[in-house]
Design goal:
The structure holds 2 protein chains of 2 kinds. Chain A has helices at 2-22, 26-45, 53-69, 74-89, 93-106, 111-127, 131-144, 149-164, 168-188, 193-208, 212-225, 229-246, 250-263, 267-284. Chain A is an all-alpha fold. Chain B is globular, with a radius of gyration of 21 Å. Chain B has helices at 5-18, 24-41, 49-59, 69-105, 112-120, 123-159, 164-186, 189-196, 200-213, 215-237, 239-245, 250-288. Chain B is an all-alpha fold. Classes of the chains: A mainly alpha, B mainly alpha. Chain A binds chain B through residues 1, 4-5, 8, 11-12, 15-16, 19-20, 22-23, 26-28, 31-32, 35, and chain B through 20-21, 24, 27-28, 31, 34-35, 38-39, 42, 44-49, 66-68, 248.
Chain lengths: 285, 289
């Protein structure tokens, strides 16, 4: 019996050792390193100002070690992004800018990462109150990477910055520019996913600019042009918040809901919509 | 006559301590499970990832082929392998253990080859029994989820409190108790097949009858080993939260601990029930004489 148990133990240890040796390095080891660094960062991110510098350095070293050991893995892309974010979070702006430049060189064909790297450069400048330099980077993201998530967000991000800073005239101009930008994208990509995304940003822009009539028009047009279950789910709350609450125009909301009811085959949704139509009509009476 | 549970436990423990060969089939099951676990643990790394990744990606999603997602899904994947091992060899090896116990109690020699050959005759019955048990466990789990969720919703509405903080622990305990109840009626099936040499259907019917007539005795007999395993069940049900608070590999360690502990607990439960069957047989024979 003892002999059999020994054989089993040897087989288990042997298989473990063989699989561990064959699987050494590569993506998995890199993922493990990144997870450890991210977890530590998560712990100290709550109050970065009171964290001992050694702990902060250990995160930086872990990510750097990963990038040195596994530079060409998929995880390295995320690690590069995390390291730049880390530098910005701990106010190491020069290092953030330098690392973003490294990313730009390394991933010159990856538009997703490039847009992020330029955006990080903008954020690093913005945090140092160098708005003009930041704006240059944000414009670059907007103009060169308009088909990325960040590229699409840039016009409204810029306008929101002015609004937050209380620069009313500049904010108005920026919201106007953002609206034109999204209208153009929508026109160029009509009935395509990018066109739909641009419409959503256009609604957001008009809402932020307190132009609720235009926002309501875009919501109605988008529902008609891009009708799908997902579009209905995303736009219905906007019908309520913009048309019913802000514009106090329940008749318009009822009209939109009836149009959806005529097109929608989703019984659950139709039931909810029907109830909402009745409630809005009852309120009117 | 009142059955002495403590006496059964001490006799079961004594037989197992004197004859550790009884544990051997369970050690073999544990060996196969550990081997399966090793393959699963390394399935996200080369070379196993070439085969495993497309399958895991299809059924669970991209996140589960990367660290630490692979460790989140590990207990679930292991459960599927455990079911397969139980169906094809687990029930059979349990029967071999009962056979060894029967021979020891009968003062007969314990020869591994003869035991295996002898038990192989009932392999199909044991395979069908294992499939039935696995299907039953699946449905009990589904039924438990339905009943427990409904009951908790009702309770929450009546008492106007949120049940979310206790839902997970409550459900785990509810599942534990219903599994224990189910086992009370079915655990004697394999010992009956081996000791009384009857067909699967007859053995299952007798096991259910035995459970009905001696519900408290069998329930109490198997409660102890099941109860000792409860912390592992609780750890498993909270593994995601534990992983988040400690380190991801903990899910692997919990699974390994579960496998090792099961060697002793499963063997103890099945031998205790076999002992009960032999005691019953003896007392019936005594009465007839």
């Amino acid at each position: 019996m003892k002999k059999i148990i020994w054989i089993m133990v040897i087989v288990l240890v042997g298989v473990y050792a063989a699989l561990a040796t064959l699987g050494t390095g590569g993506e998995y080891a890199a993922e493990k390193l990144l997870y450890r660094a991210a977890k530590l960062n998560e712990k100290i991110a709550a109050n970065p100002d009171v964290v001992p510098p050694k702990l902060v350095d250990s995160i930086e070293n872990d990510i750097k070690k990963l990038l040195k050991k596994y530079p060409d893995t998929e995880v390295a892309k995320t690690a590069n992004i995390k390291l730049t974010e880390f530098y910005i979070a701990y106010k190491k702006y020069d290092q953030a800018l330098a690392h973003a430049d490294k990313m730009i060189k390394k991933y010159e064909k990856n538009t997703g990462i490039l847009s992020m790297a330029y955006f990080f450069k903008g954020v690093a400048y913005e945090k140092q109150d160098k708005w003009q330099s930041a704006l240059k980077e944000y414009h670059l993201v907007r103009d060169n990477y308009k088909d990325t998530q960040l590229g699409m967000q840039m016009p409204i991000y810029i306008a929101n910055y002015y609004s937050r800073k209380g620069k009313i005239a500049q904010a108005e101009a920026a919201y106007g520019e953002a609206a034109r930008f999204y209208e153009n994208i929508e026109r160029e990509n009509s009935k395509k996913p990018l066109g739909y995304m641009a419409s959503l940003f256009l609604v957001q822009t008009y809402v932020k600019a307190d132009n609720f009539d235009s926002a309501a028009n875009v919501v109605e047009k988008t529902l008609d042009k891009y009708f799908s279950q997902m579009a209905v789910m995303q736009l219905l709350p906007l019908v309520e918040s913009i048309i019913v609450t802000k514009l106090k125009n329940p008749e318009k909301a009822v009209e939109i809901y009836k149009t959806i009811l005529a097109k929608s085959k989703d019984e659950k949704l139709n039931k909810v919509l029907q109830a909402r139509v009745e409630a809005l009509q009852k309120d009117k009476k | 006559m009142k059955y002495k549970i403590r006496k059964n436990w001490s006799e079961t423990f004594g037989v197992m301590a004197k004859n550790p060969i009884i544990l051997m089939p369970f050690v073999l099951i544990a060996f196969l499970e550990l081997l399966a676990l090793e393959f699963l643990y390394f399935s996200s790394r080369v070379p196993l990832s070439y085969i495993a990744n497309p399958i895991i990606r299809k059924f669970f999603g991209e996140a589960f082929i990367h660290y630490p997602g692979n460790l989140v899904v590990l207990p679930r994947l292991f459960y599927y392998k455990q079911v397969a091992i139980y169906v094809f060899v687990g029930a059979f090896l349990t029967a071999v253990a009962v056979n060894i116990f029967k021979n020891i109690k009968g003062g007969l020699p314990v020869r591994a080859k003869a035991m295996i050959r002898n038990t192989l005759k009932s392999y199909i019955s044991l395979l069908v029994y294992a499939i039935l048990i696995s299907v039953l466990v699946f449905f009990v789990q589904k039924a438990d989820t339905f009943v427990f969720t409904k009951a908790m919703r009702l309770l929450s509405r009546l008492l106007k409190i949120s049940i979310m903080p206790v839902y997970n622990i409550g459900f785990t305990l509810f599942l534990f108790l219903s599994n224990l109840m189910m086992q009370t009626f079915l655990i004697a099936t394999i010992p009956i097949i081996v000791i009384e040499r009857v067909s699967l259907l007859k053995a299952m019917a007798r096991s259910i009858m035995l459970g009905l007539r001696n519900f408290l005795t069998i329930f109490a007999l198997i409660f102890l080993p099941f109860f000792i395993y409860l912390p592992i069940i609780l750890l498993k049900s909270f593994s995601t939260q534990i992983m988040d608070k400690t380190f991801p590999e903990i899910s692997l360690y919990i699974t390994v601990a579960g496998i090792v502990i099961t060697i002793f607990l499963d063997s103890f439960a099945i031998i205790a029930v076999s002992q009960f069957l032999l005691d019953r047989k003896k007392s019936t024979a005594g009465k007839t004489a």
